[in-house]
Amino acid sequence: MLFMVQFTALGSDGPPMDGADARLADFYAYPDGLQTCWVRGNMIASLDGAATADGKAGGLAGPGDRSLFGVMRHAADVILVGAATVRVENYSGAQVPLAARNERQRRGQSEVPPIAVVTRSGELDPDALFFTRTEVTPLILTCAEAVDETRRRLGTVAEVLNASGPRADSVDNATALQILAERRLFRVLSEGGPLLLSQLIEDDLLDELCLTVAPILVGGVGRRIAAGTGEVHNKMRVAHLLSDDEGYLYTRYVRAR
User: Domain Bacterial bifunctional deaminase-reductase C-terminal spans what residues (predicted)?
Assistant: First the structure.
């Protein structure tokens, strides 16, 4: 049986770009005139669907993925992550080179985007690189039941905020985004992990997904990029596809309107 579907062979329509090419930033520009948060997810997966290798997403990355990681960070007002990702990937604050700082200033952004961590428990180590190697104060988005204790432990190294919604024992992602929007941090880049991404998907808060497909087979029982229990059917449309000479595929999908 033949289905009436049009296929397009994707190929280059211009000269190659390197990580410093100004055209590359245009591929990852956020919409103009934002007054509410636009949430972009950036994740990586192997050919067989694993979100990690050797327990870390960084185990799948190549030079091209790391370059685009920087491009997306430089475009964002704030970087949103889950606490487990901060611990496992040994996060530090965002590093922004001089040229990108100047460009951010021209766009009316701070020189360095803060990192906002979603954590129900607030259990983060105040001596971790995340707090000791950063130029800007991190934001901790926690729940009402944990906010006082978290402020006691982390209040000197971070700004701790109550992001509970109807339930005092959990973080409400819509409330967290409202807090960011009130600070005019509209361009949100979520770097995971799988549980946070799944929650954003289930809550219909993810506006786009930038997924790197690594030309690697992992096998085993590695987690997917979204690891929640809920199931939805949110349709997306392709915005662009890029590749590099190592065979990585860089996809960008945005919410279908």
Answer: 38-249
Closest CA to 49 of 218, 231, 206, 241: 218
111 vs 8: CA distance, rounded Å: 40
Look up residue 58 and give its DSSP letter.
G
| DSSP code for 219 | -
- Using one digit for the tens of pLDDT, what is the confidence trace for 134-162? 999 999 999 999 999 999 999 999 999 99
The confidence score (pLDDT) of residue 86 equals: 92
The backbone region for 181, taken as left when phi is positive above 0, alpha when psi lies in -120 to 50, beta otherwise, is alpha
Per-position DSSP letters for 81-138, written without gaps between them: EEHHHHHHTT-------HHHHHHHHHTT--SS--EEEE-SS----TTSHHHHS-SS--
Closest residue by Cα to residue 170 from 121, 120, 122, 205: 120
Q: Are 82 and 195 in contact (CB under 8 A)?
A: yes
Is residue 82 a contact partner of residue 50, using CB atoms and an 8 Å limit? Answer: no
pLDDT score for 23: 76
**How confident is the model over 183-192, as pLDDT tens digits?**
999 999 999 8
Its sign, for the CA torsion 109, 110, 113, 117, is: negative
First to last CA, the chain: 30
Q: What is the mean pLDDT of the chain?
A: 90
pLDDT at position 124 over 60: yes
